[in-house]
Amino acid sequence: MPKTKLIDIPAYGNGIMGDARIEVSKQCCECIYIDLDTYQKCEAFPDGIPKEILIGKHDHTKPYKGDHGIQFEPIED
């Protein structure tokens, strides 16, 4: 089972308007802290999620340097 999924996000700037497709860990996509506008920031990493977490190489149920003590918490239905 893949650890990532493709997400379409709005892409604007430098004369570009449209959608961009990015690959994001399923864990990030299912976390209550994710920024749903960018899928590249969250409350733990407001300046950008580290690549190791974003692409699913680090299980963020475990601490990661710079996460401000905030780890993955699932979105509840």
What labels describe this entry?
77 residues, alpha+beta, two-stranded antiparallel sheet, 2 helices, globular
Provide structural commentary.
- It contains 2 helices and 2 strands, in the order E-E-H-H.
- With 77 residues, it is an alpha+beta fold.
- The chain has a domain at 4-54.
- The chain has a two-stranded antiparallel sheet.
In the sheet with the most strands, the strands line up as 1-2
Largest sheet: 2 strands, antiparallel
> Radius of gyration, rounded?
13 Å
Low-confidence stretches: none
Task: Return the structural class.
Answer: alpha+beta
Number of strands: 2
Total helix count?
2
Order of helices and strands: EEHH
Proportion in β-strands: 25-35%
Helix content: 10-25%
Cα(first) to Cα(last) distance is 22 Å
Categorize the overall geometry. Answer: globular
Q: pLDDT average, as an integer?
A: 88
Fold topology:
Blueprint: E1 4-13, E2 16-25, H1 26-29, H2 51-54
Antiparallel strand pairs: 1-2
Condensed summary:
By secondary structure, the chain is an alpha+beta fold. Helices cover 10% and strands 26% of the residues.
